[in-house]
Each structure stands twice: as structure tokens, then as C-alpha cells.
Amino acid sequence: MEKKLFKSLIVLGIFLVCGFTQAQTISGTVSDADGPLPGATVVVQGTTTGVSTDFDGNYSIEANTGDVLEFSFIGMTSQTATVGSDAIINITLVASDNTLDEVVVIGYTTQTRGDLTGSVGTVDVSEAIKTPVINAAELLEGRVAGVTVVNSGEPGSAPRVNIRGFGTANNTDPLYIIDGVQTDDASVLNNINPADIDQMNVLKDAAASIYGARAANGVVIITTKSGGYNMAQAKLSVDFYAGSAEALNLPSNMNPTQHGNMIWESLANDNAVLQHPQYSGGLASPSPVIPSQLLNLPPSALNTVTVKPGGTNWVNEVTQSAPTQNLSISLENGNDTGKYLMSASYLNRQGTLIHTGYKRASTRLNSEFRFADKKLTIGEHLNASFSTVQNGANPAESINTAFRSSPLIPVFDDGGLFAGAYSNGTGLSNNENPCCQLNKS
User: Fold this and answer.
1) Which of 106, 108, 250, 288 is deepest in the core (most CB within 10 A)?
2) What's the whole-model pTM score?
3) 178, 191, 188, 184: which is closest to 224 by C-alpha?
4) Cα–Cα distances in angstroms (integers) from residue 51 to residues 38, 44, 94, 95, 357, in the given order
5) Tens of pLDDT along 107-163?
6) Last residue of a domain, one of 76, 95, 114
7) Domain containing 369: what range?
């Protein structure tokens, strides 16, 4: 009898709990000071349940008692409401002033974004630096309307930035203003640690006219971090990332058998004699024969050259897995009369071509102090960097040569020297060894 009573109480409790948490339909209207807001989002916090308001700002959503509804709209401050006994919840959203109050550096002064009338683009630096970059100009790529960034891909090379299109007369390089210092050399940006950048703005059309004729191609203004006044405590930031780059979807080279068959098919199509200095020793042959060593080499060849079994895949020989490591450390602080930021960074990025890479070590000290009841301000921006670039003699030409080199030629001859280049009479063309080209620095 007691067991039956106990079971009945448990069942009754479950029904009571289910009754209190039973889903109900909540409806209402989302509006602002001007009226209903169509397209506003209503979401049950902590779930994927959500709806959008219709043309008249009305919504309807299923929610349990105690759930929290979040109401949001672009440019508005989000609000929340807890579901209770009322089935109707009306919300009035208020415009957010955060975006309009953002301070933007333009020319020799600053303005709030709400007061801007010129064409000024701003990069969200905190989001942009999540992508590993070497040159600060790369932060503009895909983040400012109308700005194109073309990068050669060589480690340490400066990208080409176009703000006013490719039809600009002469060069298209914009004017860079780095903490007030002017330059039109994008390679200077290699010396700046992107993690030190506080703000990056692009001035177009009339907005750039304050800098005169040098701003004809647009202006990129870079402001670095310098701490903050009246900070509660010092802020230490450490950022480290490591990764690896690979060259993907590369075409495959022919092996010696495929290469020889291709040459024989070409000769047959031309009704020519089926012979080749390497695949037949210069004598007529019905089919190509893969030699064990290169034949008919010129007298300038110092050593014999053994053909690698399966041939040489030159694309694989000149490419590599390219590791990257970056470490940045910064310390910033400030009181009522002064502020400062100190930082140090080290970057090591290898290229996807062998014997290519870029290393940079940099340090920065930015400080500012106020005197005479804050009427006089004195500050400095000091940046020191050391970098090395290894790009071989001509990386672009090395790739081209790798696609044209014979698979019969190995990387090294039997004496350990780089094999090639040979004359056209050997049937090996006169290409220079692409690995040798990249080894030159």
C-alpha cells in the first residue's frame, strides 16, 4: 500500500513539473522610437530557437516559463525579457551609439564616425590580425570596399595596394601615414608588428585632399597602440601562433616513360625520324628507351649523371611544407599624467618554395606625458626592427623552370654538384636547375 502511494506521488510530481514548464506561445511587437521593426530577431537564450518579426514588427515564438528571450536588431541595443505568465511581450529597442561615437583618425585630426561626411574606410584590426600576416597592408585585403590588395606570395614582399583603381596614371601606390610619418613605400610596413596597430583607416576622394598631391592615390593612416590614461592596472598581452602552409593542386610532371612516349608520338605526327639524343642515343628506334645515365653530355659536364629511377618530379623538388611561428609580447599602462606601451615580437615564416623565407624581430616603445595642468603633451614613438629575406635568385622563374625541366635530369650529378644546364643538342633543353636557382641568395 505504501509503495503504491509513493509511486503515485512521484507521478503526480512529474505532472506538476511538466505543467509548470509546459511550452507556451509568446507573441508581441518589436518596435523603436519610429514604429515597428520588421526583421528584428527574437531568440530563446541558450537555444537555437528563434524567429524574425514580420513587416509589422510582430512575432510569435514557443518558450517555457522562465526562459529568457533576447530581442536584437542591427544598430540597436539588444534587450532581454523573461517569460512569465503573460503571453504577450512588447519590446521597444533603443538605437546604439557605440558605432557613431567611434573616434576615427582623418588627416591631422580626429572625428566621431557619426560626424564623417567623406569617404573613409576603417579596418576592424582586432578581427583582421586573427589572420597571420607579415605586412600590415595585408590587413586591408577584403576588408575595405573599393580597395584591392595584390600579393606576390613571396615571404617578406610588399603587397600592391590600389585604392582608386588600376587606371591611375603612373604608379598606384597610396600614401601611408604611420603615427604621423609619411611614406609611399609599402615595404616599410614590414617593420610594423600588426599586433601593435590600434587603428587603420583609408581616406578616399576629397577626404585625402588634406595631404595634397601625394595623396592622389588615396591615404592609409595607421595608428599604433600607446596604452591608455588612468588604467586600473598594467596590461600584459602574450600572443603566439604556429602553423604550416602547403602548395596545393599543383600539376604533376611527366615521368621519363610518359615523357619519352610524348616525344615519340610528336615525332610520328610530324612524320619525322623516331630518334632522340637521350631516349635512343641519337639513333633511330621504334620506341623510346629510358637511359640509366644521361647521354651525349657536352665536355663542360664535369661528372656523369645517373637518371633517378622513376625520374625527377621537379615540382616536388622545389616545394616544401612551410612552417610559421610568431610570438608577440606587449605591456601597457597609464595614470593621470602619462601612458606607455612596450612590445617585442619575433616572426619566422618559411616559404612554400625551398630556400625561401622571412624572419623579423621588432620592438616598440610608445609613450606620452602631460605637463602644465595637461596643457602640454610630449610623446614619442620608437620602433626598431631587424629582418632577413631569403628568396633565391628568381623564385617566379624557378617555378617556370620546374615545369619545363626534363624528368631525366636529377637534382645532383654523380659528383654531388647541381645537374644542368645542358645544351639543346642533348635533348634536355638549356634550362638551369631550378633547385640551383633557389639556392642562390
Assistant:
1) 288
2) 0.69
3) 178
4) 11, 9, 20, 21, 51
5) 555 555 544 445 678 888 888 888 888 888 888 888 888 888 888 888 888 888 888
6) 95
7) 235-246+319-390
